[in-house]
Design a protein that fits this description.
Blueprint: E1 2-10, E2 16-25, H1 39-65, E3 77-87, E4 90-99, H2 115-119, H3 126-138, H4 141-151, H5 160-177, H6 190-195, E5 203-213, E6 220-230, E7 242-248, H7 256-266, E8 275-279, H8 283-289, E9 296-300, H9 302-318, H10 324-342, H11 346-361, H12 368-387, H13 394-399, H14 407-421, H15 431-445, H16 449-456, H17 463-468
Parallel strand pairs: 5-8, 8-9
Antiparallel strand pairs: 1-2, 3-4, 5-6, 6-7
Helix pairs in contact: 3-4, 3-5, 3-15, 4-5, 5-15, 9-10, 9-12, 10-11, 11-12
The structure holds zinc ion.
Residues 68, 70-71, 73, 102, 104-105 line the site of zinc ion.
């Protein structure tokens, strides 16, 4: 049997036009492998359908633009060229005429213009860019090229660099859409805040870093990744968790604070809401979280504190040149420091770190390992001194089942960064490339990419359509 596909175009005035699109045949006998359309057939169908639909749309569009908007006179044709248009269903060639400008528009004229080229300056439809960005945010550019070429009627050899170029443009547009950076995002005064409705549950924001390999053998650079979790929304107060991730490259980003502020706003943050920031206390991260909310509370991540203490313990155990009694004293001192920190007693903790410094300084043999330990203890003192203001009573918070560690961000770091940026040893990144990919990747993971495109192109995939699906 044979199948023939026809397209019927119905104009606004009811006029209909029938076009033959394509044909395909099947053996009478049904076999598993001949059941339904095959992928290659579907590609042919979609591409011919796309070509026909676009031709009709273009024809109508150009008819309307062939008369002068000001005086209604018909414009004369200056020539035409072939416009290559990339769509989700193939790279099509569209006939694009050039018109002379109307004499009434002088002195702007008489240079000719091409309405279609003006309408489609990118020569790529938004949906094509969307699909490329969606997949390239999840898997490598090369894999995206293979995947899309496999299922869509696209160019035979899809270029991964073109997909990268499109994705970076999307990332850049996302960044431009963010407002200006500000030192502080706290606005209004406590009297205004008191007038606000009762806020949703507390927001907990965890921030951590990860390293990705730099291009041209330039070592590694840091990317900052975080997760923001909203405990519940009123009035339901039931488990309606909202969780969103974010990421950026510190050395490239010019508005990290704005970025985080806007993210928290999408989760409904208001000035009278409790916001808890947890981080490892690095200078860059500390500045990021300041002045974002009047009700902000900053906590040094307990996980990073204990990791540093474990490091000191290992160093103490590694020093051979001391008596057993001395070693036990050092280890006990470290335990005491941990105890004071757990209860948020920064004053006592610093005092005991100083005792530890003195004990290490007094060791008779100053071997390289002892010097290393000395350095470690000095650094820990500075760390606690710098972050003293962010050390809460962990013990008490823990008893109240509050978050004291950024361990809930660990899986996010793994998901946002590791799975896409460090999967293969060979993967190398420029700070710009990594930063912009982080923007599209977090948008995809937060399920915001489609909405973002809809903000840019209001008629992009109308929401009612996806709801009905
Ligand atoms: Zn005119």
């Amino acid at each position: 049997m044979r199948f023939r596909l026809q397209l019927i175009t119905i104009q606004e005035n009811g006029q209909e036009q029938v076009q033959e699109l394509t044909e395909w045949a099947r053996l009478e006998e049904l076999r598993p492998e001949t059941t339904g359309l095959t992928l290659p057939e579907s590609k042919q169908v979609l591409q011919s359908l796309q070509q026909a639909v676009i031709e009709q749309q273009v024809k109508t569009y150009l008819t309307e633009r062939q008369t002068c908007a000001a005086c209604g006179q018909r414009l004369s044709l200056k020539g035409h060229h072939e416009l290559k248009l990339r769509t989700v269903f193939g790279k099509l060639t569209v006939h694009s005429p050039r018109f002379r400008r109307c004499p009434c528009q002088l002195p702007v004229g008489p240079q000719p213009f091409s309405p279609l080229a003006q309408l489609l300056p990118e020569r790529t439809t938004p949906e094509r860019v969307y699909v490329e960005t969606l997949f390239a945010s999840l898997v490598s550019y090369g894999a995206t090229a293979k995947l899309l070429a496999e299922v869509l009627p696209l160019e035979e050899q899809l270029n991964p660099m073109m997909i990268r170029h499109h994705l970076l443009q999307v990332g850049e547009r996302c960044d431009q859409a963010l407002g200006e950076e500000q030192a502080s995002f706290v606005e209004g005064c406590p009297r205004d805040w008191a007038q606000l409705p009762i806020p949703d549950g507390p927001l907990t924001v965890g921030i951590d870093g990860a390293f990705v390999r730099a291009q041209h053998g330039a070592g590694w650079f840091e990317v900052i990744v975080g997760k923001s979790v909203l405990a519940f929304r009123r009035p339901s107060e039931e488990e309606e968790e909202s969780s969103k991730c974010f990421g950026f490259v510190q050395t490239y980003d010019t508005k990290p604070k704005r970025r985080l502020f806007e993210l928290l706003k999408t989760q409904g943050m208001q000035p009278n809401q409790q916001v808890i920031f947890l981080s490892d206390g690095g200078d860059d991260v500390r500045n990021l979280q300041l002045f974002l909310s009047p009700e902000a509370e900053h906590r040094l991540d307990w996980f990073h504190v204990t990791m540093r203490l474990t490091g000191l313990r290992q160093q103490a155990l590694g020093v051979k040149a001391m008596e057993e009694k001395q070693r036990q004293d050092l280890l006990e001192q470290i335990e005491r420091i941990k105890h004071y920190l757990w209860h948020g007693n920064v004053f006592q903790a610093l005092k005991h770190i100083e005792f530890l410094q003195r004990d290490v300084d007094c060791l008779e043999e100053q071997t390289p390992k002892v010097k290393k330990l000395q350095q470690g203890v000095d650094e820990f003192w500075t760390y606690i001194q710098n972050n003293g203001g962010y050390i809460p009573n962990y013990g008490e918070l823990y008893r109240c089942e509050e978050t004291i560690s950024t361990s809930f961000v660990e899986s996010t770091v793994n998901y946002v960064v590791s799975k896409r940026f460090v999967k293969k040893q060979a993967m190398q990144w420029s700070p710009r490339g990594a930063h912009l990919l982080l923007q599209t990747r977090t948008k995809v993971l937060n399920r915001e990419l489609e909405d973002t495109f809809r903000q840019w192109y209001p008629a992009f995939r109308p929401e009612t359509l996806s709801d009905a699906a």
